[in-house]
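agent> Task received from the user: take the single chain below, predict its 3D structure, and emit structure tokens. No templates, no multimer pairing.
agent> Plan: (1) validate residues, (2) run structure prediction, (3) serialize to tokens, (4) report one or two observations.
agent> Step 1 OK, no nonstandard residues flagged.
tool_call: predict_structure(input=
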Amino acid sequence: MKKVLAIVICLGFTSYAAAEIDFDRAIDIEEAIESSSEHSFDIPNVRWDGDSWYTEQYYEYLVYSLDTDCTFEKTRFFSQEWIQNCYTDYAFDTGTHCSDIRGRSWSLNGQLIIKQRELYPWEKETFHIYIHGPKLDLRLIDTVYKYSIERVEGGGETIFTLTPKSREAGKPDMYGIEIVHFAYSKEAKKYVLKLKDVWAKDYAGEKIEIYAELWKDAFLWPDSAKETKRIEFEVSDNYEIFFDNNEIDKAYVKWGFTRIGKVSTEDYMNRGETYKVSK
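)
tool_result: status=success, residues=279
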């Protein structure tokens, strides 16, 4: 399998997704800019039914929010036909022998045009243009919008134009909730987990459910869960969770969250473990 990576910048980032993203928020703006139009070649051998098969090549596009139409540069695609050539050796009775020989080949241009649409800053969409034999086609790999697709062919090229129709909820940002601190409060005599909502403004008016398990860090014995909290909050900048168990000398928390509302899907985001703290 051959793979070559290339990066092209699609200008016209939406002001919402570019200008309003700052370095204190969860998204990496440098990564966002560099991969706004990221694409790569991948050439596996894909067999067809019968005695011939074609190489398949695809180009991957990762696209963030745009405040203008995005027209990608035309890309050259190549596909080779291979034909299985078999013969039976009757003279020496050695059986049937087969080999692959080159057949026809195709070299076509492909282009993707995406009409203006808005995504939340943490969202992106993925598209593939691929060649399989004499035909270029388009795959919508991971999208937030439903699109109408216009396909124009001629002169050895195919142009795909995508126009957004309706928006569906996308997955929330795994890193949209950050740990501010996890500590033992001597004043409250409780372990306290404080979290920050990076995208609180975008989820205003919605709810979030935080799941947190307090675990005892045992030195010579297996760790064990001592207390479980599942709390639903109105979305705000910060959330605090207090644990009532005061018998643990050293503890950590396993936690995650679920967004509740229309902005994102209600997929559970497992954030793993916090660092360990002592009384």
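agent> Step 4: summary for the user.
The helical segments are 29-34.
agent> Done.
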